[in-house]
Every structure is written in structure tokens, then in C-alpha cells.
Amino acid sequence: MMRWPWGWSGIGLACVLAGLAETACALDWIEVSPDRKGFVQRPSGRAFVPWGVNYDHDEQGRLLEDYWDTEWSKVESDFAEIQALGANVVRIHLQVGRFLTGPETANQPALHRLAQLLQLAERLGLYLDLTGLGCYHKQDVPEWYDALSESARWNAQAFFWKAVAECCAGSPAVFCYDLMNEPVVPGGRRNPGDWLGPPFAGKHFVQFIVLNQGDRPRTEIARQWIAHLVDAIRQVDPRHLVTVGLVDWSLDRPGLTSGFVPEKTTEKLDFLCVHLYPESGKLAEAHRTLRGFSVGKPVVVEETFPLKCSPRELAAFIRDADADAAGWISFYWGRTPDELRQSTKLADAILLEWLEWFAERGRQLSRHP
């Protein structure tokens, strides 16, 4: 079989499809603004404020790759619903086991489907935050992947990003590449193959980038890992923005830390992302945490939701902290406000209240970004 550059087979078709999609819409490209506080659209020069949702699973808890081949019409309708909510960004979580079949072998059908997702986003005027290297369902993580050494795993991760970035390089619908959701550098040594953090609601969102710190500073490990993956992306895509989704305990403070201290690890990133869930009665503390991620680059709150506070409190927090965030990304799981109104469950009532405010805020931003 013909082998394409950088060693994988059949990626060319997916990339051609993405290139064709570029001509089918008038989306601007997104860049960091000259003052490095936000984003701007090119060539129009209009300000761009990310106001989006995580589309991390559907109402049944399924990951996108679990149904995008057999239920593509559902993906199309969900994206249309997201657009109707006033969002301009959709965060997609790509699972490593669905895009790699080996350390240097990409899954061509998955890349083909990703190219179709880009086309869909362009038709609807949506931008994608492409978060990669997911291992959310532990049972779906390939055994070969967990058995790799640290350096081999990093190289496989770089190969993943080179494949994805080559596929997406020609599309303006990419807002950014997020290298990994909530990476952590452990202090000390972990057991062989123990790459994942504890599950939350059945999914492993936290991932360790090494198993043995050795005598290396944790921040230096994080810095080198980011550089390794960014360099792989830049070989095939010099334009799209690159970031990483950090836990809020990444700041250099007493207690638990991730090793990804912003001022020591993020020099090669275009902007920063933090995942922030304010607690009731502690909104000022959450605001101080957000400010801690300001290191001379835009900061996007890439995950937020009324998980530990009321929708009203979260709305107040966003209004108060807006000057310190370049954008906000919440969640959408495939149930519209109209569907939620038919429910008698308290959780659905909370979600409905939040989505109604989210949609109204989105309409305001579309008028006055």
C-alpha cells in the first residue's frame, strides 16, 4: 500500500477532503490578537470571543467516536442545536485508541470522519477545539499503548498529533489543538502501565505523561512534553493555535499540583486553558485562581459548569471575571432546552436554567463581541 509522508497510510484522502471543505465556506481564521489578551479573526479583523460547549459525550454517555460512524445524522442535529444555543466553539475529545492502530499507524477511516466533521463545522459557522490523546474509557485504551516506554509513548502521541494536524491544516474551522485533557506530571513513581487518574462518572479525564519523575523537575518534564508535541504539529501545520487543558490546581501553590505551572511550562503554547468549576460561596477564590493563569497570553476557561454552585452563581462569576478570560466553554450533551422542559428531574431543571442563560449570553456576544 502506498505510504504517505511521515509514515502513515491513507491519510491523504482525509486531508484532501478537509482541503475541499476550506473552499466551501467563508469562515475567518482565528489568531491571537496583537495585544495578546484575546483573539481576532483574519482577514476581517473582527474580535473573536470563544463562547462554546464541550461535546464530550451524548445523553447516553457515549463518546463521539462510539456513534459518529453509524449515527452521523445525530452528530449533524446536535451541532445544529449547539449553533442554535449561540455557541461559536465546539470542543471535541478525540480518543487515542480510535485514531491510532499502532505507534506509527493512523486509523484512516477516523481521519476521514474528522474531515467530515470539519466540513459540518464550516457549514454551520462553528469552530472546533480539537482535544486529543483521550483515554476516557479505560477498556478502550490499546494494550500496546499502555505498554510503551515513556519516550515511545511521547513519540506515539507526537505521531497522533502530526496525523490530526495534517488532516486539519487546511481548514479555518479549527479554533485550536488542545494537546491533552488535564495532563499531570506525578511526583515520584507510579506502577507500570498506570497512566490514568481515577475515574469521574465512569470516565478517566486525568492522564499522567510519565510514570517516573526520577530526579527531574516536574515543570521541566511538562515543558519538554509540550515542546515535543507542538514541534510535531508545526511540521505540518504552522498556523492553527495550540494549547493544553489544565486543571485549576496547576498553579504553584501549597498542596496538590499538576506540575504544569503556567509561567514555567507554557512558552510554546499560543494561549492557556484552565478548567474551572466555581464553588458556592467561593466565587472570589475561583476568580483569584483564574488570574493566576495570566502569564502574558490569552486565557480561556475551557471547562465550566454549575457543578458546585447554582446556575445563577456561575453566571455572576462569568460576568465578574469576564475581563480576565478571553473565552468560556461549558457543556452540551445532546438534550435541547425544549426536551429538558419535559422532565421533572431536578438535575434537568438545573441544566435547563443554565442553558437558557448560556443561550441569552451567546446572543449578546454575537451582537457585541
Automatic annotation (TrEMBL):
The keyword Transferase does not apply. Keywords: Glycosidase, Hydrolase. GO terms for molecular function: hydrolase activity, hydrolyzing O-glycosyl compounds. It holds the Pfam family Cellulase. Gene3D superfamilies: Glycosidases (3.20.20.80). Residues 71-281 form the Glycoside hydrolase family domain. GO terms for biological process: polysaccharide catabolic process. InterPro entries: GH, Glyco_hydro_5. Transmembrane segments: none annotated. The keyword Ribonucleoprotein does not apply. Belongs to the glycosyl hydrolase 5 (cellulase A) family. This is Glycoside hydrolase family 5 domain-containing protein. It comes from Schlesneria paludicola.
